[in-house]
Amino acid sequence: MKIPMAIASAVLLAGTLAACGGGDGGSGGSGSDYCKDLKKAQASFGDFSSGDLGDLDAAFKAFHKLADEAPSDIDADWKKLDTALNTVEKALKDAGLKFSDLAEVQQGKIPENVDPSKLQGLATEMSKLSSSDFTKSSKAIETHAKKTCKVDLSGS
Fold first, then answer.
1. Above 50 in pLDDT, residue 8?
2. Taking the CB of residue 119, how many other CB atoms lie within 10 A of it?
3. Where are the domains of the chain?
4. What is the distance, to the nearest Å, from the Cα of residue 27 to the centroid of all Cα atoms in its chain?
5. Lowest model confidence (mean pLDDT) among 19-33, 34-48, 83-97
6. What is the 3-state composition of the chain as percent helix, strand, coil, each rounded to the nearest 5?
7. Which end of the chain, N or C, is less packed with Cβ atoms under 10 Å?
8. What is the average pLDDT value for the chain, to the nearest integer?
9. Distance of CA 133 to the CA centre of its chain
10. Three-class secondary structure of residue 97 per DSSP
């Protein structure tokens, strides 16, 4: 069992989500639910840049909603992101972890209900979030958000 790898993966996931949040957004944008929800969700992703995993469940729910609402020109990229997040959620469940447990895992504390042999699987799934394909989709979503919805997800 490699606890440090699980911790590193949790931090990696937080960093990935931070890349899709932060910044001070923009004004205007289209009137679609997608753009409104994207701007609303943007605020909830800000804590991840500091490594705070406390609201990870809410962030995943927001990502799933946005994937469902995504316009056709960015739908495939959102589906890639959503599929990856579903896989991570399943790996968390399989390991016996809840989102709320990740803060403890980051501190090196493994909850009693966790199957240590399955933490490696979780780490593997989380590491996929840094793949070039995932990164390419994330960048496409960021570009589309700025151009179409006037929402800056770059964090700058």
1. no
2. 24
3. 3-20+30-142
4. 24
5. 19-33
6. 70, 0, 30
7. C
8. 73
9. 15
10. coil
Q: 């496409």: which residue's tokens?
A: 140
- Minimum mean pLDDT among 28-32, 39-43, 63-67, 141-145: which range? 28-32
Q: Which two tokens stand for residue 124?
A: 């593997």
Give the residue, 152 or 43, on which the prediction is more confident: 152
Q: CA-CA distance, 40 to 2, in Å (whole number)?
A: 37
**Residue 2 to residue 57: CA distance in whole angstroms:** 24
> Which residues lie below 8 Å from residue 87, measured CB to CB, with a gap of 6+?
125, 128
Q: How far, in Å, are 55, 68, 71, 120, 129 from residue 117 at the CA level?
A: 26, 33, 40, 7, 21
Tokens of 70: 């995504």
**Cβ-proximal residues to 74 (8 Å cutoff; 6+ apart), any chain:** 140, 141, 144, 148
Tokens 């709320």 found at: 100
Question: Would the pTM count as exceeding 0.85?
Answer: no
User: Considering only CA atoms, which of 143, 7, 152 is closest in space to residue 73?
Assistant: 143
Residue 35 pLDDT > 80, yes or no?
A: yes
Q: What is the CA radius of gyration of the chain?
A: 16
